[in-house]
Amino acid sequence: MQIIVFxxxxxxxxxxxxxxxxxxxxxxxxVVPNAPDWVDGLINLRGNVVTLLSLSKLLQxxxxxxxxxxxxxxxxxxKIGLLVKNxxxxxxxxxxxxxxxxxxxxDGFIGIIQKDEVIINIIDIEILLSKNEGFx
Length: 136
Hints:
The chain is 8% helix and 51% strand.
């Protein structure tokens, strides 16, 4: 399994690369009126309209972060951008390396792994988005 490790504030998170199309630098977005608070806006990515989501708000964390990167996901030709502070690395892990949580449907976390001194929270983005009004 290959994952992208990124940071939000002082914590590290990871998502599977299965649906990741690319990683982009931050692009100015257009605000969408009456959208949920975790929708940061829309961006134009080479002619494609991409909904930009605040991952920190999806995770119900403080949102005073400076975002430097966007992880672009593609699911059935629908593109979604996740705002993250920094992309740390792409790494291969074994399923057995993940310390599983009891019930991943609660908050979208499927488990953690420890890399050196850093604890990385593994997120199932589909579960997280479906919990927050089912976006994918």
